[in-house]
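ok so i was messing around last nite and threw this chain in just to see what happens. nothing serious, just curious
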Amino acid sequence: MADYDAQPGRTTDPDLSAAQREADDVDLHAGLNGVAGLVAGGSGVVDLLGHVAEFAARAIPGVDGAGVSVIDVSEGTPSVTAWAVTAQFVEDIDRLQYILIREGPCVTCMETRRPTVSGSLGSDSRWPRFGGGVARMGVHSALALPMLIGDRLVGSINTYAYRRDVFGGHAVQLGSQFAGPAAVSVHNAQLLDHAQKRTKQLQSALTTRAAIDQAVGIIRSRAGLDADAAFERLVRMSQAENIKLHVVAERLVDEAVRRAKARRQT
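result:
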């Protein structure tokens, strides 16, 4: 029996034939193969999340729409930093959940780190504000799955269905099998994205430092100052014009280059 947080007072688990279970296993493996084929860096993190959401919708039985969210836990409380969905109604639901109300199955599953199921969102006492709004959209069932790598929470997979009591232990079991590899793909994409951004920042810092050093050299040659005094003059120029130091430096270097070119042409 799959371990998950079910809706209080509602434990209906759909009866499935052997043929249906076999078909669900085929869909799960197709979804897992799709996730395994994703290459971090081939697209941005949000695009990769979109692909994972599409594979989740196939891998988990009964899904009418799915979303995948990534989180930041640096402040202690998980907060969603990005998400992607397979359908507009999922976007509407997750915006309600993450931004407007901040309650719902995904929020709960990230807090408990356990799969969370609801078979009738409109009557689910766990999220009185969220459930009623979603039920009015005609969406009644939800399954939220935490994406975990060991003890690290990467994000969540959120799936929804229009009918009531769509998700039970079988869906949770298949969804949990999918969530593990999905978490690895998403985490690797995040790591690569962070490394690429850090590389760009370092490259920018090196370029900025080079421009400042060149500007200091120009001021020294023109005014006969030592390095510290020349740097202080550059700082005063930046403050007087309310312009960032590296911008003033780049402008000074560009001006020196233009003058040098003009002298060679005369």
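not much to say yet. Helices lie at 18-36, 45-59, 88-101, 105-112, 128-135, 169-223, 227-241, 245-265.
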